[in-house]
Structure formats: structure tokens, C-alpha cells
Amino acid sequence: MQDISVSALNTTVLWWTFALSTVFGAVMHRTQFCTMGSVADIINFGDWTRMRMWALAIATALLGTSIFAALGLINTDQTIYTSNRVLWLSALVGGAMFGFGMVLASGCGSKTLVRLGAGSLKALVVFVMLGIGAYATLRGITAEPRVYFLDRVAVPLSGPQDLPSLLARHTAITRPTWLLVLGIGASLAIGAWALWPREARTPRHLLGGFGIGAMVVALWWVSGHVGFVAEDPQTLQHAYVGSVGNTMESFTFVAPVAYTLYWFLMYSDASNVLNIGIVSVFGVIAGAALHALATRRFRWEGLAGLEDTANHMTGGLFMGIGGVTAMGCTIGQGITGVSTLSITSWIALASIIAGAVLGVKYQAWRLDRAG
């Protein structure tokens, strides 16, 4: 009976994940939420509007996650982002690779799924290359340098690396209190900056910022609260139903693309089952497709030529390798990871932006040479 209830709970978690992911994809398509585009807007036009929308999403996710964690509804200690090792070198190298790659590929992992849903065959090429690069870095040839060189350079801690846990270990103030102080304080500061100019408070920008951030919090709740089992009848240990590594999960789009590609290739393998990551990939594509069709913005798009093909293939590989090395993408580390106040996530976020800046400047240099 208990096994049946866990199986039913798994189905519930996956359906909730699909629903939230569909909304996520539709909101991204409706608002043109794009990290790569926001960096390009700043460098090319001095326009910070889309960057402020991304910052508003960070503030929203940070606020909601911190409050949920402080109330005990979720446990942010149980995530891949809050381990007891600060993987600063992996975050720097992987983040820079991902940021540079997403410029070559015309968008990050989540944007690739949105573009794929809206009819882009360019995005399909990126999807496949990202999945190959990610899986190779999870378990294949590029996993070797990641594990034996980059991941070994780390700062070990005596407990979780999120800032509330770190401060609680060295002060008399409890972790829930620090969660509220840091979470609310940081989110208000970031949110105030994001909403300061009038042009950043249009309905589209508010929907993009609040909507994406809220979806990250909602999936934390589904995975970490709805899907939490205190004692799995098979293992007699706690379990996060639908997760890959038995940790609480929210949106990220690098490893899940690899798992999705593997799911298609090994479909008949009985051990190859759906999980939160795979279902979120399907949901984002579906949400973008539904919105594109409803608004008559669905358009087939192909590659322009040899250079365009090479850029998108290379960009996809860079994102796959870099994203797994940094343990996340612009969503996975830049919003989801940062919402846990993880030190490694903040390092990865800064490195992704730096890599994107380098990528935009590289493309401008290529255009100048060609002209």
C-alpha cells in the first residue's frame, strides 16, 4: 500500500511539474525573457530593461524560497547547490564556458527550449549538441577533467555552504532568522533596483520577472514539500520523489536536456523513467509552442549557412559542458541556485555574465572583421 502511494505521489509531482513548466515556457515566450539578450542589450544599446526583468525574477525567487525555507516548508540544505564544498573553480570555468556558448547559440538552455517550441530548427541543433555535451560531462569523456581537476579545487566547509547556514554556525542567531534577514533584505534590494525606472514596470516586464521567479519557488515547493517522503518504504530513508539525485529540485536546463536526450535514445529500457528534469523540458517546449500558436508567432526557422551552423553547434557544446561543470545555467544557477543563497551559485552567476559579455564582444569583433 505504501509503495502504491509513493508511485501515485510520483505521478502527482510529475504532473505538477509539467503544469508549472508549461506556464514557465509560455511566460518566457510572451515576455521575451532572455539572459543572453539582456547582456547584448546592455553592450550594444546601453539598455538595462531586460536585465532588470531577470533581476526581478531573482528577487522574487529569493524572497519566496527564503520564506518557505524559514517556515520549514522546504529544506534548502537538501539541494545540489548547498553542499559543503564551494566549487569556485568549476563555477568560474564552467560559468564562463556557458555564458560564451549561449551567445554563439543565440540563447541559453531555457531560451533554446522556448525557441524550439516556437518552431526554430536552429534550436533543435543546439538542443542536441547541448545534450551531448552535458551527458559527456556528467558521465563521459569530459567528466574526467571536471571531476579530477576542476572539482578537486574547492573550499571545504563544516556544513552547508548557503549563507544563512554559514552565519548560523558562527553566530548565536538561528538559520531560519538568517534566512529571513538575508532573503528578505537581498530580495528587496535587488527588487528595488529592478523596478526603479518606469520602463521596467510595464506589464510585460512585471510578468516576466514575477512570473519566472514565482515558477521557481512553486517547483521548489512541489519537489521539496509535496514530493517529500519522510521514509521511503523501499529504502527506509527520506526521499524526494521524482528527483534524480534524491535532492530537492527546481528549474534548471542543462542536465535535464541530457536526461531527455537519453530518455529518447533508451526509451525501451525499463530503468529509464521520467523525472522532474525531463518533464520540465517537455513542459517548457509545450508552453512556448502553445503561446506561439495562440498568438500566431509560430515560425519555422532554419540555419543560415555554414558559419551559422558551426556557431550553434559549438555554442550548444559549450553550454552543455560548461553548464554541467558549473552545476547550472542562467536559470539553474542564476535564479534557482541563487535563491538558496549558495556561495557557489553567486560565483557561477557572475562568471556566466562575464562569459556572455566576452561572447557578445567576440561576435562584434567578428562582424567588424567581416565588414
Please describe the structure with a list of short key phrases separated by commas or semicolons:
single chain, 371 residues, mainly alpha, two-stranded antiparallel ribbon, 15 helices, 68% helix, 2% strand, globular
What does this protein structure show overall?
The protein is globular. The protein has 371 residues and is an all-alpha fold. The chain has one domain (2-370). The protein has helices at 2-31, 35-45, 49-70, 88-104, 109-117, 121-139, 143-150, 163-170, 175-195, 203-226, 255-265, 276-294, 306-325, 332-337, 343-370, and strands at residues 85-86, 155-156, 228-229, 239-240. It is built from 15 helices and four strands. The mean pLDDT is 95. The strands form two sheets. Strands 1-2 form a two-stranded antiparallel ribbon. A two-stranded antiparallel ribbon has the order 3-4.
CA-to-CA gap between the ends? 70 Å
CA gyration radius, whole angstroms:
20 Å
Q: Give me the secondary-structure category.
A: mainly alpha
Helix count, DSSP H or I runs of 4 or more residues: 15
Walk across the major sheet and give the strand order: 1-2
What composes the largest sheet?
2 strands, antiparallel
Task: Sketch the topology as an H/E string, one letter per element.
Answer: HHHEHHHHEHHHEEHHHHH
Low-confidence stretches: none
Strand content: under 5%
- What is the residue-mean pLDDT, rounded to a whole number? 95
What is the count of distinct domains? 1
Helix percent reads 55-70%
Task: Count every beta strand, where a strand is a DSSP E run of 2 or more residues.
Answer: 4
Shape: globular
